[in-house]
Structure formats: structure tokens, C-alpha cells
Amino acid sequence: MNRLYLFVLGLWVSAAQTFGQTQAMTLSDVLQLAQAQSVSAKRANTQQRTNIWSYRSFLAQYKPQLSLAGTLPNFTRSYIQVVQPDGNIQFEPVSYNNSILNLSLSQTIAPTGGTISVQTQLQRFDNFIQNNTLYNVVPFGIELTQPLFWFNPMRWDRRIQPLLYAEGNQQLIENLEQVSVSATTLYFDLLVAQVNLQIAETNRVNNDTLYKIALHKLDLGKISQNDLLQLQLSVLNAEKDLASAQQMAAVASLKLKTFIGYRDDGTGQTRPLELTIPNQIPVFAVDVKRAIDEAGSNRSAAIGFRRRLLEANRDLEKARKNNGLNATLIGGYGLSNQGGRLGEAYVSPQNREYVSLQFSLPIMTWGRTKAIVETAKANSELTQQTVEQDKLTFEQEIFTQVTLLQMLNQQVTLTAKADQIAQNRYQIAQDRFKLSDLSVTDLGIATQDKDRARRDAILALRDYWQAYYTLRLLTLYDFETNQKIK
To answer: Where does the signal peptide begin and end (predicted)?
Structure first.
């Protein structure tokens, strides 16, 4: 009983494995594998992580920054020159350690481009020759650094960086949709190769059968020697076409496997992929205006249009402000003190104030300032013109893709009907030839029409599905389910 059970179980497992090996993959299966494990999909996700961390780094710039800086130790033992009262120079030995620590909490002021900081500082000076120690402390200090008339990059970054982040997010979706387009192309390359292989195998069998029938007809005097030689040549051509089709199918299968990251089983045998023909065409209507609107709100290129215009305006303002009057105001207030002991330095600290205004004004530049501004202005105008042209190309591309998809939908239906008619005509021609009611030439024409119609039907399906996924890529919208692609 147990042996019978194990034998039946073994047959069931073997049958299941055989079925798994011969089970054909659909277009949907291939696209899921490509987006899950292809190198292109992994690279797209890596780029997205870079985009996220870059944006987080930008946001962190506008939050308070706590930092500890210092020089510890700062030891020096040497001879230094000392100017004497009479003007002579005498070299005196020095041996000291001058260490300093500074704890600072700073905050950028985006609207003005300035920085405000709160800090505390401790400095210790050890004179090893005189054997004494001094402390200098700043228990509390506040400082403001404010550029005046300078270009403020932070104000522009707050407008541009969110667009870059949104552009990167949409670029991830586009990259994954591009993976689908590429996988679809490779899928149909293999499917066309497999169809050609099937055609070649069928033609080889049919031509061999017809040649044997023709030999019998020759003995009966119902066919000429010329027709027999023509059929014999057809057999040789079919053998040649079969070998070529086998090689093309193997190459196409390897390309598709490599792209989607497909791994064969651990038996060491390389199994060709078997694909199904996606005859079920989704039925939906695409409005051109709706497609353009969706692309305008979803595509990274549409976001890039706004970003490029902002960057051009930013560069123009930078050229104008950084080549004129510039000044920087630095001011601070706090408490400070010094003493021979650390505790003494913190007793009764004194006020600590400082203020300075640094400025620069170009007076004679020989036209350099004007040239820089005019160059930036010309680049800004060029960017505006380029963006306008890119917008028109953007809309034309979508319009062309929508009309192409509608046309290819009709082509799929027509080529499918033509394929069915050609297959039926060939079957009739083959039966008539067997009955000596059709010439070899007419049979050859029917064979060529049959093969051409089958290939045209597959190529029409390829063109349709490529156009379908290209439209998804161009709009980032699924018109079949009426929702944005996320």
C-alpha cells in the first residue's frame, strides 16, 4: 500500500514538474518579473533612494544645527622673534598649549539669507615656561551674520528643490514604465522568433509530405519533373529556414531572460521561454485633451519645465546681484571673562559686543559686469524659448501616440481576419494539390501568403502593445482603469 502510494505520488510530482516546465508565460508575467528583478528596475529604485536622501539633506539645512568645534591640543615649543625696545630682534623660547572648544547652535534665515547662532566657548592657555594657566570663557554669545545686497540662494532653493524632488519621484515611475516598454519589445521579439520557428517547423513537415506525394504522382504521370524539383527545393529551403529560426529563437530567449533577470532551474539545463500570444486587446477610449492634461500633471518633464524656468531666473538674479554692491553685516552680543582658574572665569562676566560691516563695490570692470548680466539674460531667454518648443513637442508626441494606438487597434483586428483567411486558403490549396487540382506554383503562393499573414498578425500585436505601454509612459496614466500610475 505504501509503495503504491509513493509510486502514485512520484508520478504526480513528476507530472507537476513537467507542467511547470512547459507552462507558457504571459506578457503580464514577464512585465511583473521585469519590474521586480531586472537590473533596470533596481537601478531606478536606487536613483529614487538617492533622490529621497538628497531632498532630506536639503530640508535639514533649514533646521537648527548643533556643532562642536575646537582645537585640542594645540601645543607649541619653539623660538620666536621678539622686537626689543631699541628695535633689535631677540629670539625667545616659548612652550605653551592653547586649546579652545566652541559649542554652537545655528539657524539659517531663508528669507534674508542670513545666519543666527548661539554659542558658548572655553579657551585654556598653558605657559609651560612660566608655569601658569589662564582661562578665557564666553558663557553665552549670540551672533548674526547677514549678507546685504548679495544673491540669496536659499530663497531660490526653497522653490526649486521641491520641484526636483517631485521630478525625481515621477522619474521613478517613468523608469519603471520604460522597463515595461523595453520588456514588451523583447517579449515580442521572442514571440515573433517562436512564431517563425513554428512556421518553419510546419513548413518543413508539410513540404516533406507534399514531396513524398509528388513522387507518387510522378510515377503516375500526374506531375512534371520540374514541379518535383521545385518541391524538392522547397524541402531544402524549409530545412535551412528551420535552422535559422532555431538560432534566432535561442538568441531572443537569452536576451529576454537577461533583461528580466530570469533564472533557470538548478539542473544546469537552459530551458527556452514559452510565451503566449496576447490576443485580448483592452477596449477603452482615449481623449487627446485628457491625455495631454494627464501628462502635464504627471510627467517629470512637465515639472522640469517649471524648474528650468525658475533656474534661469535664479541665474539671472545671481548675475545681477553678485556683480554689484555687496556687503555683509556681522554683529554679536554676549558675556565673557578670564581668570587663572576655571571657576573664576565664570564669576561676574563682562559684556561682549562687536559689530562690523564689510562691503565691496566694483568701480571699473571694463564691461565685465554688463557682459555677465547680458549673458545670463540671453541664457534666460533661450531657456524660455527652448521650454516653449519642448512643450509643443511634448503635446505633439502624445497626440501622435493616441492616434497611433487607435489606428493599431484596427490593424490588429484586420490582420487577425487576414491570418484566418490565409490559413483556410492554404488548407484548401493543400487539399487541392493532393487531388492534382492545383499547380505547385499556386501552392507556393498560398504558402507564402499564409506565412506572411501569420507574421503580420503577430507584428500588429507587437506594435499595438508597444504603443499601449508607450502611451502609459508618456502620460503616467492608465486609461484602461482610469487612474494615475503610482
So the answer is: 1-20
* CA-to-CA dists, residue 251 to 186, 246, 247, 310, 408, angstroms: 11, 9, 6, 48, 28
| CA-CA-CA-CA dihedral for 219, 224, 229, 231, to nearest 10 | -80
Contacts of 344 by beta carbon, 8 Å cutoff, 6+ apart: 135
C-alpha cell at 83: 622686537
Maximum Cα–Cα distance for the chain, whole Å?
A: 139
- All structural domains of the chain, each given as residue ranges with its CATH number in brackets, are 24-59+155-318+369-484 (1.20.1600.10), 64-109+114-149+325-361 (no CATH)
Span between the terminal Cα atoms of the chain, in Å: 56
Distance CA 177, CA 471 (A): 10
| Rounded to 5°, angle at Cα 16 from 14 and 19 | 110
- Amino acid (one-letter) located at 215: L
Q: If 0-12 CB within 10 Å is exposed, 13-18 middle and 19+ buried, where does residue 301 land?
A: buried
Residue where the block lists cell 619653539: 78
Question: Which three three-digit cell numbers place residue 132?
Answer: 601658569
Q: Which three cell numbers stand for residue 290?
A: 485628457
Whole-prediction pTM value? 0.78
Q: What secondary structure letter does DSSP report for 150?
A: S
Measured CA to CA, the distance from residue 117 to residue 64 in angstroms comes to: 9
Apex 381 CA angle, 377 and 387, nearest 5: 140
- Could you tell me the three cell numbers for 406? 487607435
C-alpha cell at 373: 548680466
Task: Give me the pLDDT at residue 70, please.
Answer: 95
CA 158 vs. chain centroid, Å, equals: 24
Cβ neighbours of residue 301 closer than 8 Å, sequence gap 6 or more: 390, 394
Provide the pLDDT for residue 249: 87
Write down the pLDDT at residue 449.
Answer: 80
H/E stretch holding 345? helix 342-345
* Residue in 128, 253, 129, 140 with CA at minimum distance from that of residue 191: 253
Judged by average pLDDT, the poorest of 42-46, 174-178, 216-220, 251-255 is 216-220
Q: Which three-class secondary structure string do you get for 113-129? A: CEEEEEEEEEEEEEECC
The CA-atom distances, in angstroms, between 386 and each of 309, 311, 389 are 10, 13, 5
Is residue 100 predicted with pLDDT exceeding 90?
yes
- pLDDT tens per residue across span 327-375: 999 999 999 999 888 888 888 888 999 999 999 998 888 888 889 999 9
**For residue 222, how many C-alpha atoms fall within 13 Å in the half-sphere facing its CB?**
13
Give me Rg for the CA atoms of the chain.
Answer: 40
Q: Which residue has the cell 515580442?
A: 188
Of 268 and 441, the one with more pLDDT: 441
DSSP 106: E
Q: What is d(CA 447, CA 438) in angstroms, rounded to the nearest whole number?
A: 13
Residue 477's DSSP bridge partners are 484
